[in-house]
Amino acid sequence: MSNTPVIGVLALQGDVREHLIALAAADAVARPVRRPEELDEIGGLVIPGGESTTISKLANLFGVMELLRARVRDGLPVYGTCAGMIMLADKILDPRSGQETIGGIDMIVRRNAFGRQNESFEAAVDVAGVTGDPVEGVFIRAPWVESVGARVEVLAEHDGHIVAVRQGNALATSFHPELTGDHRVHSLFVDMVRATRGAESL
Predict the structure, then answer these.
(1) 105, 123, 185, 190: which could form a disulfide with 177 (CB 3.0–4.6 Å)?
(2) Catalytic positions, written as ranges
(3) pLDDT tens-digit profile of 21-53?
(4) Alpha carbon distances (Å) from 88 to 69, 80, 177
């Protein structure tokens, strides 16, 4: 069995291309995913940034929302950035009308917590599990995590707010590592997918 995992990027909205490039640089086979049958062909999934309400509506429109919930619940490794973090939250503090999430991480998130588009910024973030220098975090209308449950590991904070978490096979960051050319966070996720595949083959 090849040790190169196949990882999908949910291609409904957001910076899909940048995630595909980052995953390929982290030694994964990366492919866009938007239909239910395509979920059967991947060992992990990235949910990119964008607009979480729009992603929610499109996931229902393309018929993948319920399947995604089931797959994540069954242990599919998943990584969400920015809006993807919101999609992986079990609860949103201030949801828009009709907004749904996939869930998978026992956390409450606040949408657009760091400000609007014109208040976007970059900051060095120390991320547990990522060796070397701090990760350059790009925060664009970014959420933060208000609180986490007992099973959630906090991986990073910025300015007193939680910006990276992991619970089992689910990873989430408030920021966009795919925009920096630094692929270490994606490598962390690829390693998570490899570990899951290894456990399944035992």
Answers:
(1) 185
(2) 82, 176, 178
(3) 999 999 999 999 999 999 999 999 999 998 999
(4) 9, 7, 17
